[in-house]
Amino acid sequence: MSGLPVTIRETTAALADGELSAAEVVDAALQRVDETEPLIAAYTDVDADGALAAAADLDAETGSRGPLHGVPVAVKDIFDVAGMPTRCGSEAYRDATPAATDSTVVGRLRAAGAVVIGKTHTHELACGVYTPPTRNPWDLSRSAGGSSGGSGAAVAAGTVLGATGSDTGGSIRIPAALCGLVGLKPTFGRVSRAGVAVLSWSMDHAGPLARTVEDAALLLGAMAGPDPLDPSTLGQPPLGLSLKAPRGTLGGVRVGVPREPFLEGLQPETAAALDVARDALGELGAEVVDVSIPALEQTLPTSFAIILPEAASYHEARLRAAPELIGDQVRTLLEAGMLLPAAVYLRAQRVRAEITAAVAEALDGERFDALLAPTVPATAQLVEQERFEFSPEGETVGDAFVRTTAPFNLTGLPSIAMPVSLTAAGLPTSVQLAARPFAEAQLIAIARELEAVLSWPAKVEPAGLRRSPADTPAGN
Amino acid sequence: MTAEEAAVIAESLGLSLPPERRGPAAEIVTGLTEWSRALAAEAEAPEPAVRFRSTP
């Protein structure tokens, strides 16, 4: 792609060895933005001057600022970045003034040495799975997913080595899946949401998108930790990450594969990818067992009955003052949230507790270390595509994606989406692993073992951006 | 919830809900309300038949 290392680990190693300067890395990132933005439209704003100045500061320092020293990152445009407006992908925020301070996540990334290149498109108000005008680097006729679609496209195109995302019903993992990336939704309460626009207080999570599991872990390590500005993060146990190389075995590990609602309508390519991941885990020595958790059948209505009124509450002032500034799709959801009886919201919260208990019972009763599921039921949709028809009744793209990602928003469990393979059409497939609350270290360790035996072409130019045969992945 | 009922509730909330916007919002609310009602009645009807879809 840019000719520079494409992972955080390789980049920071080259910087530490003096083979590269932060200024060279950031300059290459900015050049890559110039090359790819006309094709993918990932960014709302690019802060070239700020990024180059930050890189110069890093190069002037005598030591390493932290594990992300010199690493270019992008920030979803619902996270505050000091000096830049937070517009949330909506005309309703068109007059937003520049943020006075960084969100906690951005501040922590900078403290670890990361350099913010710019802000990325989000589906309006982080409430959808398309993220116009962004396109998928693997196929420019397709969506990058959402709502963190700009972040997904920015990382997949190689403009940055990592990006922030938020995940209320799948919005980190969906673009990760569609763009061939790793997306890590941590445990609820692991990463601060201070300075991040709300969609749903009780469902929102912040986390990273990256090319590899290790890179996602490095980003999470910088982002995580207690923050008095977000009380949900207080009292969390230490992250305890150990980024040792994969050992080539998962002996003694038990993995559950829940049926509902994950397997109720899958594109054949996605089902095949799940089988590949399942077999790979088995070959690593893990015991992989089917499990039924019927409570998860209620995932979709429970999620919507919680997200819609919480989102309506947060955006009520804007919905009243200038509803015409909010796009039709999101506006309808907010209006429904305003009209929904409180009893339905409260029932959904009760069902959520039942779902959480049922999943915990499955994890404990079956002694599972992780759950394995398709991240989403299908590969990237066309930008104008509204429905999937691979299930008997068909379903909207949004319902299909949320059906398989929201279980881990409702339960708050950590979940990591990771690419498996390219389909014959050249689109990424993805699976997700989930684990017990605050067991990110274990989750990442299992994901790294799986990643090591899958043949995902993490360092290959996405097909939509490919210009030379040399960029073609082996076997395609 | 009908579009007319949505209009009445919206008005009581002081929320602008033009005629063309009432149906889509009402349909989502109806889906979720029926889902909730079915769960509430689960003791009598253990197999709730409601299948929720967020978009009509």
Structural write-up:
The complex is a heterodimer of chains A (about 475) and B (about 55). Chain A is α/β, with parallel strands linked by helices and about 475 residues long. Helices cover about 35% and strands about 15% of the residues of chain A. Chain A has 15 helices and 13 strands. Chain A has helices at about 10-15, 20-40, 50-60, 105-110, 150-155, 175-180, 215-225, 270-285, 300-315, 315-320, 330-340, 340-365, 395-405, 405-410, 440-455, and strands at about 45, 70-75, 115-120, 160-165, 180-185, 205-210, 255-260, 285-290, 370-375, 385-390, 395, 415-420, 430-435. In chain A, strands 1-3-2-4-6-5-12-13-9-7-8 form an eleven-stranded mixed sheet, with helices on both faces. In chain A, helix 8 links the parallel strand 7 and strand 8. In chain A, helix 2 packs antiparallel against helix 3 (about 50-60) and helix 5 runs parallel beside helix 6. Chain B is mainly α and about 55 residues long. Chain B has helices spanning about 5-15, 20-40. In chain B, helix 1 crosses helix 2. The two termini of chain B are about 15 Å apart. The chains are: A alpha/beta (about 475), B mainly alpha (about 55). Chains A and B meet through helix 9, helix 11, helix 12, strand 11 and helix 13 of A and helix 1 and helix 2 of B.
Key structural traits:
heterodimer, A: 476 residues, alpha/beta, eleven-stranded mixed sheet, two-stranded antiparallel sheet, 37% helix, 13% strand, globular, B: 56 residues, mainly alpha
What does the secondary structure layout of this molecule look like, with pairings?
The complex is a heterodimer of chains A (476) and B (56).
Chain A: H1 8-16, H2 22-40, E1 43-46, H3 48-60, E2 72-76, H4 104-111, E3 115-120, H5 149-156, E4 162-166, H6 173-179, E5 182-185, E6 206-210, H7 213-223, E7 254-258, H8 268-283, E8 287-291, H9 299-314, H10 316-321, H11 328-339, H12 342-365, E9 370-374, E10 387-388, E11 395-396, H13 397-405, H14 407-410, E12 415-422, E13 428-434, H15 440-453
Parallel strand pairs in A: 2-3, 2-4, 7-8, 7-9
Antiparallel strand pairs in A: 1-3, 4-6, 5-6, 5-12, 9-13, 10-11, 12-13
Chain B: H1 3-13, H2 19-40
Helix pairs in contact in B: 1-2
